[in-house]
Amino acid sequence: MHDQLDTIRDLAKKTDSKILMVVLDGVGGLPMTVNGDSELAAAQTPNLDALAAHSQLGQIELVGAGITPGSGPGHLSLFGYDPLRYVVGRGALSAVGIGVKLEAGDVAVRGNFATLGENRIVLDRRAGRPSDEKNADIVAQLRAALPSLDGTPVEIYTESEHRFVVVFRAAGGAPLGANLSDVDPQATGVQPMTAQAHDEASARTAALVNAFVARAEATLAAEPQVNGVLFRGYSDVPRFPSFAEAYGLRAACIASYPMYKGLASLVGMDVLTVEGHEDALDGKVQALTENWAKYDFFYFHVKKTDSTGEDGDFAAKVKKIELFDALLPQLLALNPDVLAIVGDHSTPSKLATHSWHPVPLLIRSEYGRRDVATRYTEDGAQKGSLGLRRGTDVMPLLMANALKLNKYGA
């Protein structure tokens, strides 16, 4: 089936122009009260405001109207891969992001450490966001207790904070299916769910997952806070057309969290080394600056605009937006031919979770038409000349503004 990605591949041409895509994770928000400001509108962003006045703005639906995207589908959409066609679970993204090689028949799954109360009620889906050191300690306990299950090798890896990854290895046996339901209820005040297989090939995987959950809770029973595990995002080995194949671009990823590095790696981007703590942006700017001459396309990821929204902390999310605004001049100093600022989904503090609301998109290039929007906010994006678009439209727009697409047809 010939889709938009195939069309762009046929039209793509090499030029010297450079594209910088900044993804402010979960940046879209909502007012906490009727007629109030969203986090973006409440933030003091003089640099973003000045940029918006000379850019085009619009809104993006990452998957479709009313559909709340996960981070994986949201990013795939921004990279031009239809998330309804190119499906990958979060487990594979996290596994690849921390350097784990998946083989045919293996299943990887993303885990959250959680706090469970009486009767296994979920009190905190993120166990208070433990330190990476505490995460590693818990992983060590689980590795000792769970080297295998029913003859199936089990590998457990630290990701960061409350996140971890489990890989169930087929190890020469029958392939494991990845079509099963989540354990994570994505809510508090309820019990974890029981994994249910959606096809015969996944029945064994569901049994392994449920056995892992029970053994983990028994192992961690004495822990005061990190005493449960929640799973979501099962996946086997995914395959995608590479960025080089689709766009003819030398592409680089600048991110700290393993899942985003994993996704970039799956689509063929080079994952650059970022110095410093994952929350720090200085290391990312340094990596961008040092590698500016080597690539045509840069994906620059900012995470904490999402994490603070998930925590329901409006003021903290505002602060993270303002911190990005403060470093924006360093990105502009590199003079990218095309600069995009966008989110992979909305995470309103009011909801403390991902939402279906469109995210604001900004594109600055020499070839943009005059726009009426003057701020990079949800209201500004609604007024912008780019209108309401699908996430898969972003890459073609960036390619066009970078003069990297030939004419279609005679």
Write up what this structure looks like:
This protein is an alpha/beta fold and 410 residues long. It has 14 helices and 14 strands. It has helices spanning 4-11, 39-42, 46-52, 71-78, 90-97, 132-145, 203-219, 243-247, 258-266, 282-290, 304-310, 314-332, 378-383, 394-401, and strands at 19-24, 56-61, 107-116, 122-124, 148-149, 152-160, 163-168, 228-235, 251-254, 270-271, 297-302, 338-342, 359-365, 387-390. An 8-stranded mixed beta sheet has the order 10-9-11-1-12-13-2-14, sandwiched between helices. Strands 3, 4, 5, 6, 7 and 8 form a 6-stranded antiparallel beta sheet that branches. Helix 5 crosses helix 9. The longest helix has 19 residues, at 314-332. The model has no long low-confidence stretch (mean pLDDT 92).
Question: Characteristics of this structure?
Answer:
410 residues; alpha/beta; eight-stranded mixed beta sheet; 14 strands
What are the SSEs and their pairings?
Layout: H1 4-11, E1 19-24, H2 39-42, H3 46-52, E2 56-61, H4 71-78, H5 90-97, E3 107-116, E4 122-124, H6 132-145, E5 148-149, E6 152-160, E7 163-168, H7 203-219, E8 228-235, H8 243-247, E9 251-254, H9 258-266, E10 270-271, H10 282-290, E11 297-302, H11 304-310, H12 314-332, E12 338-342, E13 359-365, H13 378-383, E14 387-390, H14 394-401
Parallel strand pairs: 1-11, 1-12, 2-14, 9-10, 9-11
Antiparallel strand pairs: 2-13, 3-4, 3-7, 3-8, 5-6, 6-7, 12-13
Helix pairs in contact: 5-9, 11-12
